[in-house]
Specification:
The chain is of the alpha/beta class and 294 residues long. It has one domain. Helix content is 52%, strand content 11%. It has 14 helices and 8 strands. A hairpin with a 4-residue loop joins strand 1 and strand 2. It is globular, with a radius of gyration of 19 Å. The chain starts with a helix and ends with a strand.
């Protein structure tokens, strides 16, 4: 798909961050084990794109993948139709006829977006008919690419290639409409906040990004929360539909898999696992125990 819908989805995994921690800093991987009545479920936190030179997954992923009969992701990337995805964006991600990005953003914000686009070798004219939420995610995506992050090296992309080579079944927890619908439904004010947040984060120091990746690799939820949990508190209008609501929608499907007889590896963005309303906490409330792999 290149840098279209899939690129934005991958960037989204890094745009915000994780919420509050549930595990101590001694943990060694972002993979948890949950026992069902007749099977084992491996619930793994993902970073949706990684630097090529840091793309090797923690060993726990290899063990969980090898022990699982099925790979489950937020979206089933093995079956994602690029034409359907492009059509969805044309329908839901474009401004109404007669509106321009300049008129929606206002002159000052539009000037900042134009400058950011130029820094990323992108003409702002390419963005002029796109809704602000699409513009924000595209700018974030380009920034990560310029910094050496590679969507093809993201956790899901690596695992889905293995699954296809091994003829291992894959599945998704939601549709493209469910995945992106929360963004398309953002209020005009929250879409402008998304633009402002993106512009403010485009030039974060490389060192902070490296700290995030290192903490994810170690499964250090406390460190990640210290770095990133402020995002949830500062922008609940964005993170509630993108995190909490989706967790609630996924929970019955995950519990249905726990009632099955096949081992499964479920991989979702790491921000979905931790904190109040995270999948680990929701499963605990329903009587399941999750043990972090080392």
């Amino acid at each position: 798909m290149g840098r279209t819908v899939l690129g934005w989805l991958l960037a989204l995994g890094l745009l915000g961050g994780l919420s509050l921690p549930v595990a101590d800093a001694r943990a060694a991987s972002p993979v948890w084990v949950i026992s069902g009545a007749h099977n084992t479920l491996y619930l793994a936190g993902s970073v949706h794109l990684l630097p090529a030179q840091q793309s090797a997954l923690p060993p726990a992923f290899d063990r969980a993948y090898a022990a699982s009969a099925r790979l489950v992701m937020e979206l089933d990337l093995a079956k994602l139709d690029s034409l359907a995805a492009a059509g969805w964006l044309l329908e839901h991600g474009a401004l109404p006829q007669g509106r321009s990005l300049r008129s929606v953003l206002g002159e000052q914000r539009y000037t900042r977006v134009s400058a950011a686009a130029a820094d990323l070798d992108l003409s702002v004219g390419v963005l002029d008919n796109q809704a602000p939420w699409v513009v924000g995610l595209e700018l974030a995506d380009l920034e990560y690419l310029h910094r050496g992050f590679d969507p093809q090296q993201g956790v899901e992309e690596q695992l889905v290639r293995r699954a296809q080579a091994d003829h291992k079944p894959t599945a998704g927890l939601e549709t493209l409409d469910e995945e992106l619908g929360g963004l398309a439904a953002l209020s005009p004010a929250d879409q402008l906040r998304l633009i402002d947040q993106t512009l403010g984060e485009l030039h974060e120091p490389q060192e902070e990004m490296r700290e995030v990746i290192d903490a994810w690799r170690r499964g250090d939820a406390a460190k990640l929360a210290a770095l990133l949990s402020r995002e949830y508190r500062e922008f609940p209008g964005l993170y509630r539909p993108l995190v909490s609501t989706r967790n609630q929608r996924w929970l019955p499907q995950i519990e249905q898999l726990l009632r099955g007889d096949q081992n499964c590896l479920i991989v979702v963005g790491a921000l979905h696992l931790v904190g109040d309303g995270g999948l680990l906490e929701l499963l605990r409330r329903d009587g399941y125990t999750a043990t972090q792999m080392n």
